[in-house]
Automatic annotation (TrEMBL):
The gene is mgsA. It comes from Dyadobacter frigoris. The lineage of its organism: Bacteria, Pseudomonadati, Bacteroidota, Cytophagia, Cytophagales. This is Methylglyoxal synthase. Its EC number is 4.2.3.3. InterPro entries: Methylgl_synth (IPR004363), Methylglyoxal_synth_AS (IPR018148), MGS-like_dom (IPR011607), MGS-like_dom_sf (IPR036914). GO terms for cellular component: cytosol.
């Protein structure tokens, strides 16, 4: 059994980028400025400040990733306060907060949140008709897990 979570036409989008991917995310955000302006944006640390300046749009700023920003995003996903994650992560560099990154990506799967880890995936998400309308996301029922005897 599952339940349905409504994702409104105006999405709550979290945006994160590792240092070596910030330029790529800024280029992508510039190309998608109009669509981003129709949504509420959240971003970690420097990424958020750069996006706010670049887009001339308010961005709800979270902590830097290594200081807990990734975990803040994960918490917001679990609380159903984030609808979509754009996370341009760097696969070629070890990050001091790699366990947090893995946990964040895991939560996207647990809570059925669309996530783009590169420009191509972000382009596919943003050109989907579902970006412009309400969407009913099926959420796995975890009551068996929660009610298990330990």
């Amino acid at each position: 059994m599952s339940h349905i979570r409504k994702i409104a036409a105006s999405k709550r989008i979290a945006m994160v980028a590792h240092d070596n991917r910030k330029t790529e995310l800024m280029d992508w955000a510039t190309a998608n400025r109009e669509l981003l302006s129709k949504n509420t944006l959240y971003a970690t640390g420097t990424t958020g400040r750069l996006l706010e300046e670049l887009l001339n749009q308010p961005v709800i700023l979270l902590l830097s990733g290594p200081l807990g920003g990734d975990q803040q995003v994960g918490s917001m996903i679990a609380e159903e306060k984030i609808d979509l994650l754009i996370f341009f992560w760097d696969p070629m560099s070890a990050q001091p907060h790699d366990p947090d990154v893995k946990a964040l990506l895991r939560l996207c799967v647990v809570w059925n949140i669309p996530v783009a880890s590169n420009r191509a995936t972000a382009d596919f998400l943003f050109t989907s008709p579902l970006m412009h309308e309400d969407y009913l996301a099926e959420q796995t029922d975890y009551s068996k897990y929660l009610n298990r005897i330990v």
